[in-house]
Design a protein that fits this description.
With about 190 residues, this protein is an alpha/beta fold. The protein has 6 helices and 7 strands, in the order ααβαβαββαβαββ. It is globular, with a radius of gyration of 16 Å.
Length: about 190
């Protein structure tokens, strides 16, 4: 099954229901901008994008699933929030044009996107990236190993144009072993 079909089916089954944003956002909240543009890469139904929009950011959600993006727009409409949505396949389509003050990429691993994250960021803009590592398989069967970072791999993916503000890798609050970075474009 193609990624779009798989994710469309998952979002169709879930329905347009609000979901809690990632705990990583709470732990980074004091560092995040309160105005400007944000890009949520592989943002699905907008759970994190909505949190950012409530804080005053103009948010673009990019995802392969039109169903997920439709849910994001509906949830935003219910709250009186604005969200821009862009359907794209990150394996072949470029990121939406920046500059963005904030780029999020949570639970989507495509290593060759890191230079594109830099290009999408405004000078001084922040990248927040979070992905489970292979250690996660000790407690969870999903995602499979092909979608996981090697232990200690994340620092090697950070381009020199980014300054690491915070880097962590451990069993974190949502019960997964993840590597996370907050990095600022120089």
């Amino acid at each position: 099954m193609h990624d779009q079909q798989r994710w469309d089916q998952r979002y169709q089954e879930r329905g347009a229901r609000p979901r809690e944003h990632a705990a990583f956002l709470d732990s980074a909240a004091e560092l995040l901008p309160l105005e400007g543009r944000a890009l949520d890469v592989a943002g699905g139904d907008g759970r994190n994008a909505l949190w950012l929009a409530r804080r005053g950011l103009r948010v673009t959600v990019a995802d392969v699933s039109p169903v997920g993006l439709s849910h994001a727009r509906e949830l935003a409409r219910q709250e009186g929030l604005e969200l821009e949505t862009v359907a794209l396949d990150l394996t072949r389509d470029p990121l939406p044009p920046g500059p963005f003050e904030l780029v999020l990429c949570f639970h989507y691993l495509q290593r060759e996107l890191f230079p594109a994250f830099v290009e999408a960021l405004a000078p001084g803009g922040l990248l927040l990236f979070s992905q489970p590592t292979q250690i996660n398989l000790e407690r969870h069967s999903n995602p499979s190993a092909r979608f996981l970072l090697e232990p200690g791999e994340l620092p090697s993916l950070i381009p020199p144009a980014l300054e690491v503000v915070r880097l962590e890798e451990d069993w974190l609050e949502e019960g997964r072993h993840e590597a996370r970075v907050i990095a600022r474009r120089r």
